Amino acid sequence: MTIRPFHKKIKNKEAGQVLLITVLIMMSTFALAIAIGGMVLYELRSMVNTNESVKAIYAAESGIEWGLYKTNKDPYALKPEMKNGTEFECPDTCTNCIHCSGKAGRVNRAIEISF
After folding, report:
1. What is d(CA 48, CA 39) in angstroms, rounded to the nearest whole number?
2. In sequence order, what are the residues at sequence separation of 6 or more whose Cβ sits closer than 8 angstroms to the Cβ of residue 85?
3. Which residues of the chain register pLDDT less than 50?
4. CA-to-CA distance for 75 and 112, rounded, in angstroms?
5. What local confidence, expressed as pLDDT, does residue 2 receive?
6. Whole-angstrom distance, CA of residue 48 vs CA of residue 56
7. For residues 81, 98, 68 and 111, what is the CA-based torsion angle, rounded to 10 degrees?
8. What DSSP assignment string belongs to 12-63?
9. Residue 99: CB partners within 8 Å, gap ≥ 6?
10. Is 2 in a helix, a strand, or coil?
11. What local confidence, expressed as pLDDT, does residue 24 receive?
């Protein structure tokens, strides 16, 4: 009959606890890294959408300028070609106003003036 020392049993239990604590710390660190990565991606998308929004506003403003030119100077003026990948639409819906919507990527912005 072999008698095992009591301190070896305690050492084996402590080794299991150290492994458990190490795994928990690694999981926490991984979860924190994923959360920070998600926030960074959200901010990057927000910056891209802001850039596209500015382009869409400028496209709508170009449409307003074109509508004013048509109203005041040349009613048969051709719609200008946008070179930066944006576009605008100006439907003729009212007599004393111009409503144009600009589009850049997936972002739409609209402007309306009355005169």
Report:
1. 14
2. 55, 104, 105
3. none
4. 19
5. 59
6. 12
7. -60
8. HHHHHHHHHHHHHHHHHHHHHHHHHHHHHHHHHHHHHHHHHHHHHHHHHHHH
9. 90, 91, 93, 110, 111, 112
10. coil
11. 94
